[in-house]
Amino acid sequence: MFEFLKRFPLRRRSPVSPIPLNQGGDSSRDVVLRLQLPPAAEELATAVQSTAAPASIMMPNAVETQVVSSTMPADPATGLATTHRPSRVRSSHRERIFAMRIEHLQICNEKRCRLLAKVGVVTAGDLACCNPDQISRQYKSPGRALRSIKRLRAAVRLAVAIEGMMPRDALILVAIHRRSVASLARESAAVLHRDLERFSLSSRGQRLVGHRGVPSLRRVKSWVGQCEQLVAHWIQNHPAETQVAA
């Protein structure tokens, strides 16, 4: 008997356990199958990810949402997020010239720039607000240095008053005795341009003008027009002083 049973392979216990519907004496062929199947590997991985993902993803999403909401506020009109970039504050013509260093103005040589730097005059703003009498005492020739510093200071002050004019252009106007806005407002653009061309033919004019050449007639017209507007605005705001001067 034992040898006969050894011919049949052993079978594992099946998870299927047939249980009759009728627990009584009546026997029935209908059975209920209770399966004890292990969960699938994919379902286990999905369950683990679904439980662990909120804890790890919630914080980055919250931080990212906070950053996006702070940098890109929604537009109430369109409902869309808009990016607000910091606006650049444009500096005026006066501020740009006052902030320039003297060696960048091209109105004096390197030696004069070094001597001015020793007494604390580094930028065009320092030159426009300096005391020429006090600075000229530091030079070997105070009288000559005083006249030169006054011309440079007048050129810077004239350049900052007129939009589009640089101190090297104003230095040429100072050399032909146009030192103020009022004097330019009384000039004709054509006559002023002719005087500039004549001055450029002299030896001193060639040193000041150099390879840049004389300013064009169009630029001279714009300078004269701005001076006329400035004088008219000043007369309108100071009528009493205008009557006394007349």
Keywords:
246 residues; mainly alpha; 14 helices; 2% strand; DUF4332; DUF4332 domain-containing protein
Provide a brief overview of the structure:
This protein has helices spanning about 1-5, 40-70, 95-100, 100-105, 110-120, 125-130, 130-135, 140-160, 165-175, 180-185, 190-200, 205-210, 215-235, 240-245; strands at about 20, 30. By secondary structure, the chain is mainly alpha-helical.
Describe the protein's architecture and organization.
Helix content is 59%, strand content 2%. With 246 residues, it is mainly α. It has a domain at 94-241. It has a two-stranded antiparallel ribbon with strand order 1-2.
User: Gap between N and C termini, in Å?
Assistant: 147 Å
Number of helices: 14
Instruction: Give the strand content.
Output: under 5%
Report helical residue fraction: 55-70%
What are the segments in which pLDDT stays under 50 over at least 5 consecutive residues? Answer: 14-21, 52-74
Q: Let me know the largest β-sheet.
A: 2 strands, antiparallel
How many DSSP-defined strands? 2
SSE arrangement, N to C: HEEHHHHHHHHHHHHH
Anisotropy-based shape: extended
Major β-sheet strand ordering: 1-2
Organism: Rhodopirellula baltica WH47
Protein name: DUF4332 domain-containing protein
Domain DUF4332: 106-230
